[in-house]
Write a structure and sequence with these properties.
Blueprint: H1 11-23, E1 44-47, E2 50-53, E3 61-66, E4 74-80, E5 85-90, E6 97-100, E7 106-117, E8 120-131, H2 154-162, H3 168-179, E9 181-182, H4 184-189, H5 198-204, E10 206-207, H6 209-221, E11 227-234, E12 237-246, E13 249-253, H7 255-258, E14 267-272
Parallel strand pairs: 9-10
Antiparallel strand pairs: 1-2, 2-3, 3-6, 4-5, 4-7, 7-8, 11-12, 11-14, 12-13
Length: about 270
Amino acid sequence: MRKYCILRMGVTVFLLSLLWIVAGSVAYASSADAVWPESSGEVVQTDGKLVVDASHMEQGYIMCCVSAPTNHRLKVRMTYANGAQLTYDLDNEGDYEVFPLQLGSGNYEFALFENVSGTKYSSEGKVTLSAQLTDENAAFLVPNQYVNYVRTTNAVIKSDELATDGDVYQRIKDFMTEEFSYDFVRAKTISPGELPEIDHCFESRAGICQDLSAVMVCMLRVQGIPAKLMIGYADQYYHAWTVAVVDGQEVFFDPTAAINALNASRYTTERFY
């Protein structure tokens, strides 16, 4: 799995984690009450070829697109007020994509870069936003590139079935542990930079670490349980796992380890979505 980008965390992650725990969990709901991103056009900023819809920034996300289709590869670099950066690919056909404000309230800069030749990129626009989230967990209740789902995603439908009674978090965790296996073939054949595949993983009941974790996070988010897709290292292995807030407590769960496909003692976070 290629390192898509690096989030320079350090003390920032520690402080944000404390805020996340203190904020507590959101009451369980059904997917009908989940947050579904939209580019409503109420607050739009443009610069060069970059278009940013910040109409629902308080809900922990913005939406970006390029002003006109291009044949060139595009990247969006997000820079937080403390200097932490994340770099994403952007659709080059002009469709909006969701970008989470996972570092919480504060100032963000979004910059667009277009591939002009080889590894060379040109700067094509820059927008600065000041975000005030209604809840510091907000970004972990909506879909994004790494946890990509819609209302009709089968994992969402199954989540509603499991959330009819009892401990929703435990029921979803048990479902992941009992129903899924590790896809060793995909682990050997995955392309560099490939994003998690929620639909394929759910339908085949098999996936690699990022797929399994994305399915878990999807099913939790639509029930109002803030959940992060974590990426970093499990011992020496590049890996993905989950962290959720349940009853005000930060809860770690690694779906890959739960199905006995990994045995690690130390987890080191590089970035999260």
